[in-house]
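Risk register update: the risk that structure generation would not scale has been downgraded. Supporting records follow, first protein first.
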Amino acid sequence: MYPVTVKKLRSRSLIGLPHTGDYQQITEAFAKLFETLDARDLTEKTRQKVAIFYDDPSKTAPASLRSFAAVTAPKTVPCDAPLQHITLPTGPHAVLRFTGAYTGLPAAYAYLYGEWLAQSGKQPSGQPSYEVYINSPRTHAPADLVTEICLPLK
């Protein structure tokens, strides 16, 4: 249904802000992140937007969901409070490439964690999944947005 490949991904250095609440509201954390980066003249030193999702929304109340709104950045970029630094793990990942509006992502997750994982013979590593935003809704129509859902594997 969705294209999934297994790849060895290298670690990525992130700077960002934590978010607690409905995953659909992570845009608020991204807005605060970019306000902070802009105020510190750091936006041009960052690269891709990334969101980490720690909890299963089918098992956790929306108000308690934990996520992290971030950008990839060289380790030399200052990360003073309230910004936080996280390093994503190196290793095998299932990468689902999704094209379309962000509202379609829950169905892509259901496929990845359900049908694909069951048929793949692979096991999740226990690390949280994350999304890498390949392009931006500022410059692309919703139907043309590309998001990679990355699931760390054992």
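Supporting record for the second protein:
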Amino acid sequence: MLYIFLMPETLEHGLPLAEAAWLRQVPFRAALVVASISGDDDEQTWENFGRALHAASEVCAENGTIVLCTGLRRPPGAALKRLARSSDDERLWQRLQHDRSEDAMSALLLLENRQRHHIYLLSHLDESAVEAWGVGHIGAEEEVSRLSRHANSCILLADAHRTVPRVAVD
């Protein structure tokens, strides 16, 4: 495990710079949040998927819709495979909390957020694999556009895996 110790001066000057770079304030929670993960295959990871899902969930209205636009093509890891096979969410939650696989946090976030939001995924993954997680599969960008026409409010989070969104008034 790597520990990084920062001097107080570093925190004092660095924290505002980091917040300016990544913090995005939005006026309200939206009915639809479209979150993207940009970059090549090295950026299209399950860890970044989880980061983007978390960012989107922070600004999505209860029972709202989250659309994750990715270039994911990596096969799911052990945790997402378990999520697809399980029908006992409470037992799965307990098990995933101790899981150390690369996709464990993403599986936990999906498990939590699919109960609060409608989640869709645009990726290069197989439709049946995506839907086994309780997530809607989107096969083309036009489907995202169609979803946006039916939402009364929308937030776009470009580079959602690098964004820390906050709602101005909650």
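The chain is about 40% helix and 20% strand. On this basis the risk owner (M.S.) recommends closing the item.
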